[in-house]
Amino acid sequence: MSEPPPEEAGREIAPPEEALSPEVNATHQEKPERDQSILDEMTASRQEWLERRQSLDDLFADERPSAGTRDWGGRVTNRVKKGNVWQALRDIHVHEGGQLPATTTHALTKDEIADLRGTLVKTQSQGETRRLLDTDRLVLLSGAPETGKATTALAALLEWGGSATWIIPHGASTPHPRDWKLEPGQGYVLDLADTPDSVDRVITAVRRAGIDTDSRVIVLVPEHTKSSVAPAVDHDLPSSRELFAKHLAVCAPRARLDQNDQQLLEKELQAYSTPWQVVELARQTAAAVQSGVSIDEMLSRRLRRMSEKVGKDLDQRTPVLGRCFMTSIAVLHGLPEAEVSGAALALAELLDARWRRDHAPRPFRLWERLPLWLEYVDAEATPAAGPGNGRIIRLKRPSLAAVMLRVIWEDHPTIRDPLIDWLHGLSGDGSRHTRIRVGHAVGKLATFDFDVVEERFIRIWSQSRRARDHQLAALALEAAAENPSLTRRVHLHLRSMIGGRDAEKAIAIRAYASSIGLSVPDQALAAFRTLVLTRGGKFHQEVAQSIAYLYRADTSHAILNHLADWVGEGGQVGRRSAALTFVRLAASIAPTPERPHLSELDPHPSLVTLWRNALSYEEGGRLVVPESWDLLLSEWLRHYAERPAVREVADKIFSLTEGRNARRALLYLRLWDHQGEISTDLHHHLRRLVHRS
Question: Is this structure's pTM higher than 0.70?
Answer without folding.
Answer: yes
